[in-house]
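> Could you send the Signal transduction histidine kinase prediction when you get a chance?

Sure thing. Input:
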Amino acid sequence: MIDQRVGARSWAGPVLSRGRDEGGRGDDSREAERHVFAGVRLILLGVTAVLQASLGFGALLTYPHHPAARVTLAVLVSVTLLCAVWVVRREPLPRVVVVGGVVAVMAASAVATAVLPSYAHFGPAHWSWGQIGWSLLLLLLDRVPALLAAQAAHIVLGVGQWLLAGTPDRAAVGNVGVVVLSVTSLQLGALVMTRFMLRNAAQAVEVAAERERAATRAALAEQWEQDLRAGFAGQLGSTLPLLADLADGVLDPRDDDTRRRCALAATQLRRLFAENDDVPDPLVHEVTACVHVAERRGVAVSLAVSGAPVPVPTDVRRELTGPLVEALSAARERARVSLLRTEGEVRVAVVSDAEVEVGTARGRVEVEGGTYGRHTRMEARWRTS
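Output:
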């Protein structure tokens, strides 16, 4: 007869939280993104420096320019050198450097274009046109909306200054269109390639994370299987000699001690099988399994369960049910089992009509009891805190 008085609070089995896993994947993705930006910025730094040294200085030496043009080139070179302080160390650019650099680059572009003669716009002498876009890429590579806005403002500013310098003919319009399209498409192509690399890096991180999760699941499954085999082997270690003695006729099945040993082995195995079942309340399930084995032998067992379920580790459940297994396997006619659970402790007590040797503390579980005439009381207690 089983009387279960379980509290109203429901029990939820262990839930595998994804927060940490997702957080780990997010950190890996950000780290991969940072490496991509650092590598591309290093390339852009080299491209910008080469263009400023070849096209900028070359144009200033080849064509007549206003003195302000030399100042604008010095500003662009200064911005590039300032960015190099962080780019070479593969660190992201500070916000103040980005904002100040964009303002300086756009102002330099406006000044360099303003001091050009009207016929020199978008020609070989217009050295600043192609270089400004690369400087903006270097500064705003990881800020795509701001980069596109700055590039658009650069194009509008340059074309507007050209239109204000005079009325262009059809050939000049076509030439400007080719120059603007060729330069901006190359720079936007570099941006698209960077986004493609970022996507590949994110996919690689996801694949690596999935492989790691698969390896972790495989390792956990293997460990669980090894623990399961070890548990069965430990139980069968005492069962196999018993079976061998029975088969060889060494033991008499009619002997009370033999029957008690057989009952003990059966109860231990049944509890072991129940331990590996996926149930919402493992401790009650294992206690009930032990009770059922005793009832099949004809022992009248009453079970009372009180208190809300609490999570109990597997090894602690083994220690809690150890005295129960011994007492029920030795019981002759009657036994009474009680399971009490509170926030501070878990108790498993049994009273049986058999004389059983009372054990002591088993690891984290305290065992106490005593013999009263033909009855034995055993109690196992585990403190949760």
